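Onboarding guide, step 5: your first structure request.
Type a short instruction followed by the sequence, for example:

Predict the 3D structure of this protein.
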Amino acid sequence: MVVLLLLVLLIAGCSHPAPPPPPNRAEELVRAVRDDSATAIHRLLSAGISPDTLAPDGTRPLTEAARNGRMAAMQVLLDADARPDLRDSSGASAMDDAVIDEHRDIALLLVIHAARDAGESPAAAAWFDSLGAHRPPGDWRHVLDGELTSLALLGAVIDGRDALVGSLRRASGVPNRTGYAPLLVAARLGDEHAVTDLLQGGANPDAEVAGHLHETPLMEAARDGYVAVARTLIHAGAHVDRFDAAHETALMWAVREGETDYAKALLDAGAQRNLRNAAGETALDLATRIKHDDLIRVLTPP
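The system replies with structure tokens like these:
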């Protein structure tokens, strides 16, 4: 027994500790993006880490940059040919996060990058560069056409260029590779002037994000309770009871955001209280679950 014990101790003493697990380089890249460290991002990309890598937490470098408003990181990643169309594990793209979190400079940079992917001419590139630099970009009619006019209009909405929005508003129905209709972004930003201009130019008041979760301008305006925008959209014919991919209506969006006045405006416009989402909940059920007394009173049938 003593001999056996000595043998076990000898083996244990000769064994080497297990090496630490190798670092996860994707996670390291995402962390560098959160820190907005262009130097660290360059180093990791030079080491062969893909700018489109998916980190263990399900995020991608571009979506993380957009979500956190990391402009330097976004520029480095786009210069390294990161793909803005890729989504993270939550289903969000970089443009989704930039628009939802109102990171205007990030969203505008993505629009300018999309114009380059669309095969812009040197004159069009100069026009978009001026827009990105917040300088007057000049007359677009001689340099832009097709998808580029839609991207220019989207950029004008993001940058708050009212006169340019009015000039380009007829391009509101032209699809572009970001998937975002200018009207939807104007509604998200609460830009009443742009919403009115775009609708007068023929924009679809129910325009959705292409190939995504079926959000509408009414839903996007609900995020911050832009009641005036909602009334303008409804007056233009927006359907108050359209469903998104989760079978939720603008009224349910308003409830989730705690926007009582917005919910009242939708109810005044005829929104139905008894519709159910994919989980079987009504707007009142949602209000009850989050314990929002004002919304519960508004949504309780008389």
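Each response can be followed by summary notes, for example: The radius of gyration is 25 Å.
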